[in-house]
């Protein structure tokens, strides 16, 4: 998958909030003057600031990409089958062997399994082959100037300037439309906080160096709370008699409780002594998974439910799990129907944010609440019956 097609990734490091200092909007030249003043006030040498901002320009294609994120309108089965190919599985195994020494270091230092990093490496940039062709500096400046999320992107501009000052960011650097850089697509603030010189050349450069990218991604996940030697996702078989109201993100229960209700691992056994939530990405008649605490950490890498679930499942495949059982899910809604559903849910008092036609975590939670109210199986999967009932 092209990196420019995915949602924002990475955790914003703790940096000074900047939107209030220099603002957003207005003419782009005046905005750059504000950035320049902020950088100088922060102590950056004038020559360095001038070099960083030389020839900076607004990129309208970045704004178009930001407003056109529609890839996650696909449901889990279609999306996962589109992005998890046999070629990617084969290349994943080959890269695991090629970088075995690095993965061994990662396991020892950070406790992050190679399957997780291989999955994100594949989905973000196809193992480094497609890293994006947007000028990173200009993309960050464009998004910081745009007044939708200045508090998110203005610190990234300052972080890129700091990377530039230490010789780890060239103003010609290209990447995703949202400013992510390198083979695992990290934002500049993430690189400042979690960047690792994996190849020992004295620099942290995530574009050319797979060791730098993999080590940095692992350090970031560890910093987000990844639990060493614990699973993240496991396919399960659920009984038809399960109380569907108990399923979904945030409804974690001890594994022993799920086993008493008849939930069992499709292969192997469930992890004893842990807790987890039952995920039904396409409802009670579709594939079923048990999400352990590590699964939640992945949402700090990417906020999309279907992307994170797919990446987590892909990681299990790269670690040897079999393909999931698709079963026979009830047909879902089209994007237009999903948008209508979101409007109806908002009219009933649910906080839906924008009506984007995407079945994200917020929409699923509202769906489950309305299913329960209407006496429908509360599995969080909207169908034509729910739409009609609303």
UniProtKB/TrEMBL annotation:
InterPro entries: Lysozyme-like_dom_sf, MltB-like, MltB_2, Peptidoglycan-bd-like, PGBD-like_sf, PGBDSf, SLT_2
UniProt cross-references to Pfam families, sorted A to Z: PG_binding_1 (PF01471), SLT_2 (PF13406)
Signal found in the keyword field: yes
Gene3D superfamilies: 1.10.530.10, Bacterial muramidase (1.10.8.350), PGBD-like superfamily/PGBD (1.10.101.10)
BP term (GO), one: peptidoglycan catabolic process
All copies of domain Peptidoglycan binding-like, residue ranges: 336-390
Domain Transglycosylase SLT: 28-315
Superkingdom of source: Bacteria
Keywords carried by this UniProt record: Signal
MF annotations from Gene Ontology: peptidoglycan lytic transglycosylase activity
Signal peptide: 1-19
NCBIfam families: MltB_2
Name of the protein in question: Lytic murein transglycosylase
């Amino acid at each position: 998958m092209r990196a420019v097609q995915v949602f924002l990734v990475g955790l914003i490091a703790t940096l000074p909030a900047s939107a209030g200092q220099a603002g957003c909007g207005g003419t782009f030249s005046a905005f750059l003057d504000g950035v320049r003043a902020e950088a100088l006030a922060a102590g950056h040498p004038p020559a360095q600031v001038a070099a960083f901002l030389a020839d900076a320009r607004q990129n309208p294609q970045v704004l178009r990409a930001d407003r056109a994120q529609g890839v996650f309108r696909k449901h889990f089965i279609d999306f996962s089958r589109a992005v998890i190919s046999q070629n990617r599985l084969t290349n994943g195994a080959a890269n695991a062997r090629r970088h075995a020494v690095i993965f061994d270091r990662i396991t020892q230092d950070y406790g992050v399994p190679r399957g997780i990093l291989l999955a994100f490496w594949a989905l973000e940039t196809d193992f480094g082959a497609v890293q994006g062709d947007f000028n990173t500096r200009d993309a960050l400046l464009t998004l910081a100037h745009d007044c939708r999320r200045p508090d998110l992107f203005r610190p990234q501009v300052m972080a890129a300037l700091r990377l530039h000052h230490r010789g780890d960011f060239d103003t010609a650097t290209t990447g995703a439309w949202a400013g992510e850089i390198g083979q695992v697509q990290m934002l500049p603030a993430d690189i400042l906080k979690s960047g690792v010189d994996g190849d020992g050349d004295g620099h942290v450069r995530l574009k050319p160096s797979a060791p730098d990218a993999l080590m940095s991604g692992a350090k970031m996940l560890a910093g987000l709370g990844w639990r060493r030697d614990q699973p993240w996702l496991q396919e399960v078989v659920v009984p038809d008699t399960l109380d569907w109201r108990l399923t979904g993100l945030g409804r974690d229960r001890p594994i022993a409780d799920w086993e008493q209700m008849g939930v069992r691992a499709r292969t192997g056994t469930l992890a004893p002594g842990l807790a987890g939530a039952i995920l039904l990405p396409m409802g009670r008649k579709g594939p079923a998974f048990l999400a352990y605490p590590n699964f939640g950490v992945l949402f700090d890498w990417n906020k999309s439910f279907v992307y994170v679930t797919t990446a987590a499942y892909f990681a299990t495949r790269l670690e040897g799990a079999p393909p999931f059982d698709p079963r026979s899910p009830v047909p879902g809604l089209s994007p237009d129907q999903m948008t209508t559903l979101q409007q109806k849910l908002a009219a009933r008092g649910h906080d839906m944010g924008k009506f984007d036609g995407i079945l994200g975590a917020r929409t699923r939670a509202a769906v489950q609440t309305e299913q329960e109210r209407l006496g429908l199986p509360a599995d969080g999967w909207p169908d034509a019956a729910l739409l009609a009932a609303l």
